[in-house]
Amino acid sequence: MAGMKKEIQLQTTICNQDEWNEMLKTKGVVVIDVYQAWCGPCKAVVNLFSKLKNEFSEDDVLNFAVAEADNIETLQPFRNICEPIFLFCVDGKIIAIVRGANAPLLTKKITELVQEEREILAGERERLRLDEIVFVEEKLSEESIEATEETEPEEEDITYSVGIIKPDDVSEGRVEEIKEKIRAAGFGIAASEEKMLTEEQIREFYSKKSEQPDFDDFVQFMMSGPCHILIITKKKDADAIPLWKELSETDETEAEETDEPQETEENESISNICDVPDSLEDASRQLGFFFPNFDRKHTEQKFEKTLALIRPCVLRERRDSILQSIKDDGFEVAMQKEITLTEEQAREFYKEHENEDYFPALLEQMTSGPTLVLALTRQNAVSHWRDLLGPKIIEEAKKTNPNSLRAKYTVDNIDINQLHGSSSVDDAQKELEFFFPQEQTFALIKPDAAKNHKDEIMQKVKDAGFTISKIKEAPLTREMAAEFYKDHKGKPFFDDLVSCMTDGPSVVMVLTKENAVEEWRKLMGPTDPEEAKENCPESIRAQFAQNILSNAVHGSSNREHALESIEYVFGELGI
């Protein structure tokens, strides 16, 4: 037990997106072990991390964490990957990645970052603007591949190239300086990764220079330490490679003007500060070589959530039509609820508009009946939903964008537009939290389902986006079951229900998610398995329930009941 306690203290556990966002605020250097739920964190590096933590303990500049990829949206590209992944966070950005439990590379990277951070804190150097790395999907789904095959390629106005910062520059801490030169010359950096190149990779990448007399020595030099691989971007494609070559030559010229020994002309052609391809054809080949899964079309796209409101008047008349338009435009409805706002709630939500002339009319509209609240998801959801809505002023929408939703879905004699969308990603987060606050609910897998279908049910829980905050597999006593179902006491089926609930171990859980109570009840499906099969065939009860008593799972009916159940059941089990 002592060893386990030490490990928990060494590495902070990150279980969900909120905890990930909180981790980004941590000062200093954070090293995150990204793991899969089925295999757990990498044990091989714990002793190394403990040693490094002790070495750098004097100023608390180094921190370690573990993060389960399955439950964190940001880490979606790393799901179902067998090898260990280590991310490095500095100043709120993920700036580096190491793949595999490579102890020398991990030690080197951690030592460099800690030393840089100490110098910054001591005022000995300025913090350079850091590029956050782009997480690239490891593999495309079959659907994505099919969609790519069926879609005509779009004309691209961005050229991509690969740049390699060689081991000596990496070891001497010049990576950020070189990146700054790249940006200053008008280029962008779409992705970067530090890695040890194999001999095969080096010989393949530099195949055109293999006839040079010092090539074997150069290969050994390139294998002497980690390189930094960049994806470099430039708008318009005509001059991208020549301009980048010119930048490399400038760096080479600067190097020649120093007092360092002069290199031969042949060696200079290989050992520029950062190696780049000679042509667009080579650039494309090398991009595929080092970043085989890099998606050019979606580099700038982000999977987002946004809030949509369908206001009371139009909801009564055009609900189905609007929802179909949303679906047709590629959105998925992640969460939804129908709510009649009180005046207090409406004032709170629209408080930034309280000094506007239209505010009284807006309040009247928003409190006149049920509003449909939707959490919509897709790539670039915020901007795409606002584009679909059109201008806020109805007359302007009709004139300039007659096909927009605000132009199409109007109500006679009402000047307030009938649909709302978040203005920015930050606003979307705040507005979603207003209507779908993070909740906890109590969930239970009943004995028969726990025995026969536990793994399948747990997978459905994770696939639905729940975070399992607490979990325990244990049998309920008759007293616990009776207390748990006290609302059914006196009913004909009560004794059979208690017997069913004590027929073996149950899995009890605390599930966390936005709108958790309602979302868990939706995932469970109707109490009667036959009704569930007919109306909710993908629900847990439709797929795993035996009968109405042994119906696989249980969940709280409301937030108050959830809190009571969590306190009672987990208290009794001593968790």
Describe this structure in words.
The protein is α+β, with helices and mostly antiparallel strands. The protein folds into four domains: 2-121, Glutaredoxin; 151-255 and 264-290, 2-Layer Sandwich (Alpha-Beta Plaits), CATH 3.30.70.141; 303-435, Alpha-Beta Plaits (2-Layer Sandwich), CATH 3.30.70.141; 438-572, Nucleoside diphosphate kinase-like domain (Alpha-Beta Plaits, 2-Layer Sandwich), CATH 3.30.70. The chain has 26 helices and 17 strands. The strands form four sheets. It has a five-stranded mixed β-sheet. A four-stranded antiparallel β-sheet has the order 7-8-6-9, sandwiched between helices. The two termini are 16 Å apart. Residues 1-8, 137-156 and 237-273 have low confidence and may be disordered. This is NME/NM23 family member 8. Belongs to the NDK family. Residues 1-115 form the Thioredoxin domain. GO terms for molecular function: 3'-5'-DNA exonuclease activity; microtubule binding; nucleoside diphosphate kinase activity. Residues 249-268 have a biased composition (Acidic residues).
